[in-house]
Amino acid sequence: MSSTEAPYETGGGFGLSSREARVIGGASVLMVINVLLMYVLVVTPLASINEYLFALPIVGAIVYGAAIVGGQLIAERGVEGGDTGIAFVGMVILQLAFGIFGAGVLRFAPRDAHLTILVVTAVVVAVLTAAIGAYVYARSKSFEHWGSYANYAFIGGIIGIAVGTFVAPVLLLGFVLVFLGFLLRLGWEIWKVRDQRNASVTLQTIGVYIAVAGVFVHVLQLVMRYFASRQ
Q: How far is Cα 122 from Cα 96, in angstroms, rounded to an integer?
């Protein structure tokens, strides 16, 4: 347990404290910035990076996974050490990782459809987040095990993508497992916000943001497929 964590205080109910509202608000602001970044980057050369990275899917998965994990570690180190500059660098890495990936997905749609696709994705993600949050807050129990399940799902997803790099049908399994991993992590992060009431608001904000952003880029791919099927 780090110096910023507190003992768990498992509880239930839907009332949000001011600190919980600050975490939700902060994560929401970070997501708005990320979505705007996707919208801007999609018309830049950075949007084509996915084409090269995912020529071998496992390479793309490793690169983005490393960027997300690295960005989180750097941001958390900055927060814990009181170094705003380091924390900012970590957040820039996270924003660019999710922003470039999202832009790479979005680039296959016409420019005039980008805003609609992003809005639809945001609505779906908001509903999913609200549903998971309601589930967690309605139950007076620990969701610590969801963190472990999320890690297992991520590991399984990476293995699935690695196999799918050479056996294409398996890629879908990798996608599903990584998506599931982010959903489980979101529930775990929400539970921590609910029960670790003395923990760092900034660290919890970063955790919730990463989970929501991970869900967002996966839902974005599904929304893109839906729009493509209607063309």
A: 18
How far is 159 from 30, CA to CA, in rounded Å?
A: 30
CA distance 75 to 27: 14
Are 144 and 8 a contacting pair, CB within 8 Å? yes
In a domain, 5, yes or no: no
Residue 3: inside a domain: no
Query: 113, 227 in Cβ contact below 8 A?
Result: yes
Condensed to tens digits (0 to 9), the pLDDT of residues 124-176 reads: 999 999 999 999 999 989 999 999 999 999 999 999 999 999 999 999 999 99
* Full residue range of the structural domain in which residue 221 is found: 18-225
- Position 121, amino acid: T
What residues have CB less than 8 Å from 12, skipping those under 6 apart? 137, 138, 139, 140
What sign has the CA pseudo-torsion 18, 74, 216, 192? negative
∠ CA 197-202-208, nearest 5°, is: 80
Domain-embedded: residue 10: no
Rounded to whole angstroms, the Cα distance separating 223 from 188 reads 25
In single-letter form, the type of residue at position 56 comes to: L
Token output for 139: 């139950």
Count of domains for the chain: 1
**Confidence check: pLDDT of 222 > 90:** yes
Long-range pairs for 163-170 at CB < 8 Å and ≥24 separation?
164/57, 165/56, 165/57, 165/58
